[in-house]
Amino acid sequence: MAQPGVVQKLKQFLSNELGSGEKFTANMRLLKAVAMFGGGVILIRTFGELLESS
């Protein structure tokens, strides 16, 4: 199991990142960008064969 100090530091970090309005906005933008990139990769991997010319 994780040491109590490590868990406490993790809780404090998450509280600071999600509690601050300015950081929360930046984190949501980053999350949206990562989700769009991941969705694009999945889309191309799934339907990439349709892009090939015969």
UniProtKB/TrEMBL annotation:
One of its GO terms (cellular component) is mitochondrial outer membrane translocase complex. InterPro entries: TOM5_viridi. This is Mitochondrial import receptor subunit TOM5 homolog. It comes from Ceratopteris richardii (Triangle waterfern).
